[in-house]
Specification:
single chain, 151 residues, alpha+beta, Pnp Oxidase, Chain A, 8-stranded antiparallel beta sheet, 3 helices, 8 strands
Length: 151
C-alpha cells in the first residue's frame, strides 16, 4: 500500500503550523476538456490523519474543487526537506459541516501512489514560499480549518 514518507507526513500532520506558514504546495487536477490545472494549497488546508488518509479543505466554487468532485483524483506536489514529493490521491467529497467556522469543500482522500524525487547533480533548496499578509489571523483560520477536517 502506498503511503506518505515520514518527512512528508511531518509537513502535513496539522501540527506546528507557525513553522510551516511559508510553505505552499501544488494540487493538480484535470479540467473537463482534459487540460492540467494547478492550484496552490497551504499546510492549513491539507491534513494527513495518518500516512495513507488525507483530508483537504478547499475553497468552494473553484475549478480545483469542481475537478476533484468530478474525477475524484488529484496529484499533490511538494518540495520539502530537499526532495520533490508527488502523491496521487483518490478523493471523495465529505458532507458539509453545518457549524463550520470556515465553510469549505471538504474531501477525504487515500494515497494511491507516492514518489520522492532527488537529483544526483543538484539539491532542491526550496519549493514555493509565501509570506502571509495577516499571519495571526491566517494561522488561527488554519488551526480552525484543520480542526474541522479532523471531525
Amino acid at each position: 500500500m502506498a503511503q506518505l514518507s515520514n518527512e512528508l507526513f511531518q509537513l502535513l500532520n496539522g501540527e506546528k503550523l507557525a513553522g510551516k506558514r511559508h510553505e505552499a504546495m501544488m494540487l493538480q487536477t484535470v479540467t473537463e476538456d482534459g487540460w492540467p490545472h494547478t492550484a496552490m494549497i497551504s499546510a492549513g488546508e491539507i491534513l494527513a490523519r495518518n500516512k495513507t488518509d488525507i483530508r483537504l479543505a478547499l475553497w468552494q466554487g473553484t475549478t480545483t474543487t469542481a475537478n476533484i468532485a468530478r474525477t475524484g483524483r488529484a496529484l499533490f506536489v511538494a518540495c520539502w526537506k530537499g526532495k520533490a514529493h508527488y502523491v496521487r490521491l483518490s478523493l471523495k467529497k465529505l458532507p458539509e459541516l453545518k457549524d463550520a467556522k470556515h465553510p469549505r469543500a471538504r474531501f477525504a482522500g487515500t494515497v494511491e501512489a507516492a514518489r520522492e524525487d532527488i537529483a544526483k547533480y543538484a539539491d532542491i533548496i526550496s519549493g514555493v514560499q509565501i509570506e502571509l499578509k495577516d499571519e495571526a489571523a491566517v494561522l488561527r483560520r488554519w488551526e480552525e480549518t484543520l480542526g474541522e477536517l479532523r471531525k
